[in-house]
Amino acid sequence: MEIRNSKGVWVPNKIIKSEDIFGIENFATDIKKNRLTDYRITGLDDGDLLIFNREYLLIHMSTQPEILQFILDKTANALVDITYIHRYSQSSLAYKLLFEISRLMTDLNLPIHDHIVTFPKYITITFLAGYLRSSRNRILEEIVKLENQGVFISRKPLIVDLQKVKQVCLARQYE
Beta partners for 143? Predict the structure, then answer.
């Protein structure tokens, strides 16, 4: 995908994957830049160069509603993703820790016995620090706070009480 810069020169902006729809994700997620009015798509198809200019795309969007609907769907999905990313980035480390613990539990398909989950040995404080892009000390501080609330039963191996996780999350929701 190319855009016209302030000097009027076409410059590459993004490599578009086959499942992308004209870089719409880039338009929706690039908040810092002004909205693009001039753009063109260049691609290779069996060695042939394909160029879609803005007017061509807009004409086809107006004459073929399924293209417009597809682009609107992709835009809506991108906006939902932006909202999620923003909300997650504004969350406390404790919330992120609990959220990622629950995702890890689901992704690893860990067994649950009486609302207690035991994580594999490699899920350590150091692992969680890297996973959450935080320092080991900050993760340890949050785990100690959550241990005092009964959420974490053990650190080695990491053992979590899911009922306490639910209580803590509900309590924080109303703060």
Answer: none
Cα 33 to chain centroid distance, Å, stands at 20
Compute the distance between CA of residue 175 and CA of residue 173 in angstroms, rounded to an integer: 6
Residues of 140-164 as b/e, b for ≥16 C-beta within 10 angstroms?
eebbeebeeeebbeeeeebebbbeb
Residues 150 and 56: their CA atoms lie apart, in Å, by 61
pTM assigned to the model: 0.53
Closest C-alpha among 137, 132, 142 to residue 165: 142
pLDDT digit string (tens) for 89-103? 777 888 888 888 888
Distance CA 86, CA 78 (A): 12
